[in-house]
Write a structure and sequence with these properties.
Helices cover 44% and strands 28% of the residues. It contains seven helices and nine strands. Helix 5 runs antiparallel to helix 6 and helix 6 runs antiparallel to helix 7.
């Protein structure tokens, strides 16, 4: 009963329990595992070898032993004319985050690794010239010590609307993360096109993904994307293994672009 599992996960999250999920082999619901884990701030991973199982468990135990704070969560209060479109955790475990709850669960904060989150907002058109606020972010968590201490950090996001934009380049870490997030979105769009029966568009998006992956040196993943594009063009379907490989491996690319660089 997937819905009951999700309800229990939300209850666990309220008690400070995060769930880490791994999909083994074939015939498992990746969307369900993503939702189950992200609702508690935990990661979900695709495990396709026996060695990967051991590595996943070792990493998980190591992360628990290095935890500095737990139950880290963030609330996002936007201005009335601003909408939050998406939230994506870049590090330590790249994963899309649900934005339909009052708070976004981020899991545990390790002593030596940042939690990096990329938020995407939709702002209104034709904004007047001048400074304006966008949103207020509040991060909560429980610091682990002899006596558990709660902490809270607040940050107001604002921007300047001008008709003479600065020539200054955006931060390199943000541009890098956006570029790699685009690769993840490309496989998503290919799946969406396939779901609506647009085989030609799905094939085109997978071929474009393969080209982009090859350009950044991800030859093995580019080959996987090209093979799936060929499969879609001839069978109108993705292989289950290929679909999950593209989804989780393009997501994993974000870890290298963001860890200890973005906040």
């Amino acid at each position: 009963d997937q819905e009951k599992c999700l309800d229990l996960a939300r209850e666990a999250s309220g008690l400070g329990i995060s769930i880490s999920a791994m999909g083994l082999g074939q015939e498992w619901n990746d969307e369900f595992l993503d939702e189950l884990a992200s609702s508690t701030g935990g990661p979900s991973s695709y495990i396709n070898t026996a060695n990967a199982v051991v590595q996943f468990l070792n990493d998980h135990v190591r992360n628990l032993s290095n935890a500095f704070a737990e139950r880290v969560r963030m609330s996002v209060a936007t201005d009335p004319d601003v909408k939050i479109e998406s939230a994506f955790r870049l590090a330590p475990h790249p994963q899309p985050l649900p934005t339909n709850e009052s708070t976004i669960q981020l899991g545990s904060l390790q002593a030596t690794r940042l939690i990096s989150v990329l938020l995407q907002f939709q702002l209104p058109a034709n904004m007047p010239i001048g400074f304006r606020s966008v949103a207020r972010l509040v991060v909560y968590g429980d610091i682990l010590s002899n006596q558990q201490q709660q902490f809270q950090a607040l940050s107001d996001i604002s921007l300047e609307v001008t008709d003479q934009p600065s020539a200054e380049e955006p931060p390199v870490a943000i541009l890098d993360a956006l570029g790699k997030l685009t690769l993840y979105r490309m496989q998503e769009r290919a799946q969406e096109a396939l779901a609506t029966g647009d085989i030609q568009e799905a094939t085109r998006r997978l071929e474009n993904l393969a080209t982009r992956l090859l350009a950044i040196g991800e030859e093995s993943l580019a080959h996987e994307a090209r093979a799936e594009a060929h499969r879609v063009a001839h069978t109108s379907n993705l292989s289950d293994q290929g679909r999950k490989t593209l989804k989780y491996q393009t997501r994993f690319l974000l870890l290298g672009s963001s860890e200890d660089k973005a906040e």
